[in-house]
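Dear Dr. H.,

I hope your travels went smoothly. While you were away I took the liberty of generating a structure for the chain from your last submission, since the lab meeting agenda had it listed for discussion. I wanted you to have the full record in hand beforehand rather than looking at slides cold. The sequence, exactly as received, is reproduced here:
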Amino acid sequence: MLNNRIPEMGEYYNQRVQNVMIPNTRRLVDSFRKHSLEVLYTRHGALLPDGRDMVKRRQRRDTDAKDNTGRPAMWSVGSFEHQIVEELTPEPHELVIDKNSSSPFNGTGIDQLLHNFNLETLVITGAATDMCVETTGRDAADRGYNVIVVEDATATFQEEHHIAALSGLARVYTQVWKTDQVLDSLEGSLDSKG
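The corresponding predicted structure, in token form, is as follows:
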């Protein structure tokens, strides 16, 4: 749909997701699994097929999108578009949290779950950098977590928005690292602990 409306934006986003974000996220997930570290997934969308659980602004946006394109702007749980991409399929023991807000800290029990897992540092990947990723990073930092947002494992629709979101996060809330930096730090930390 984005490719039809704004071809250059859709092309940038699709290339970034397929060639940068997914491969680097896969490298991180593989390393976390290898070291028996928690891997959690979040999915953003309506929890109910009719979307009535979404805030009114999102309900209006979906109605407008359906009127203009015949397709919703936000997919609901169970739809094909709401699923996690095959390259990043969760393993049975990994937690998948469905959220109907940009940040999982609003409207889910993620904070309690992270405490139950004794997690102090979160490594965040995903899309969109200037939406869900940024909001989640700020919320996590405000709750006292150490947060690393992985620059080359995130994506959004325009490069300047990606850079602006990461710049704001790095200034106050989070660390912004590359995948290799996270992997090197992880190896170094685990090696020093034996």
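Two observations you may find useful: The longest helix spans residues 7-34. The helical segments are 2-5, 7-34, 56-69, 110-116, 129-142, 159-173, 179-192.

With kind regards,
E. W.
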